[in-house]
Amino acid sequence: MTWLPREGDTVRRGQALYRIDNKPVTLLYGRLPAYRDLSSGDEGADVRQLERNLKALGYDADGQMTVDDEYTWATAAAVREFQEDRGLEETGTMTKDSHVFLPGPRRVSAHKAGLGSSAQPGAAVIDTTGTRQVVSVDLDAEKQNLVSTGAGVRVTLPDQSETKGRVNEVGRVAQKAGEEEDSTATIAVTIRLRESRAAKRFDEAPVSVAIAREQRKNVLTVPVTALIALPGGGYAVDIVEGASTRRVRVEPGLFADGYVEVSGDGLRAGQKVRVPA
User: Fold this and answer.
1) How many domains does the chain have?
2) What secondary structure does DSSP assign to the chain, as a single string?
3) Is residue 104 one of the residues assigned to a domain?
4) pLDDT at residue number 133
5) What confidence category does residue 127 fall into, taking pLDDT thresholds of 50, 70 and 90?
6) In a domain, 123, yes or no
């Protein structure tokens, strides 16, 4: 190993993920791993994936290469340009050890090998993640019905500021944290955060996630402290009308963030209610 990016760095298409014997291993975008050397006459989805990357990096200035499943002379010419820019032997054959296909830009999260160490076949060199901030939650499997893909959540950051997020993925298989019989089974939930300057300050930090169990739209709400318990059961609120008040019986609904949903005769939006000082 002769070069590694710093932990926390972002590597994009066409850039080196690391160097072995001072030769770069380049990041290209794609989901099919590089499993074979590619040269003229080869066909397949991996050829199309490679050609798509060569085109995106500008290695087909004359427009001779067609992005398809066939590795032609034009593909080989584009590969030679790619190799020339990286100081590699210009063979026109794309060897599987010269690049890595990953789904998109990658953030380096950890080094798994050190500078000067010997590169071993199949051994991990670096750990990477996507570049978009996410929150990972190990949710009690019994609460799996509370979340669904696309649901909005509220995330409290370590500095107590809040940002919003959306459930991106909900695991299907419960996992136990340990081998003990009483260990809790959890479901992996991934939450994508809305772009937030506050969130960008944190990396691998613990956060709190609030998930709405139910929602109500277009309802009247009052502070919870405005509720008055009535003798014999039930609740009311005091409506302030100038210098006087009028007590109105209400039916409470959902509670959230210090407010409660209320309904009842004589209630309308904009009325003032009395709350304890």
Assistant:
1) 3
2) --B-PPTT-EE-TTSEEEEETTEEEEEEE-SS---S-B-TT-BSHHHHHHHHHHHHTT--TTS----SSB--HHHHHHHHHHHHHTT----S-B-TTSEEEESS-EEEEEESS-TTPPP-TT---EEEE-SS-EEEEEEEGGGGGG--TT-EEEEE-TTS-EEEEEEEEE-SS-EESSSSTTPPEEEEEEEEEPP-HHHHT-SS---EEEE-S----S-EEEEGGG-EEPTTS-EEEEEEETTEEEEEEEEEEEEETTEEEEE-TT--TT-EE----
3) yes
4) 83
5) very high
6) yes
- Clarify whether residues 26 and 84 are in a common domain: yes
- Percentage of the residues of the chain whose pLDDT score is greater than 70: 98
Judge if 108 and 143 occupy the same domain: no
d(CA 2, CA 21) in angstroms, rounded, equals 6
Question: For the segment 153-170, what is each residue's pLDDT rounded down to a tens digit?
Answer: 989 999 998 898 999 999
pLDDT at 122: 81
- The band of 229, judged by pLDDT with boundaries at 50, 70 and 90, is very high
Tell me which of 93, 109, 129 is where a domain ends. Answer: 129
Please give the single-letter amino acid code of residue 113: A
Nearest to 191 by CA among 131, 136, 129: 136
pLDDT at 105: 95
| Mean pLDDT within 49-71 | 96
Contact 171, 187 (CB under 8 A): yes
Which residue range forms the structural domain that includes residue 96? 10-129
Q: Is residue 4 part of a domain?
A: no
Q: Among the three residues 129, 156, 185, which one is the final residue of a domain in this structure?
A: 129
Q: Output the pLDDT for position 213.
A: 76
What CATH number did the domain enclosing 151 receive?
2.40.30
Same domain, 22 and 107: yes
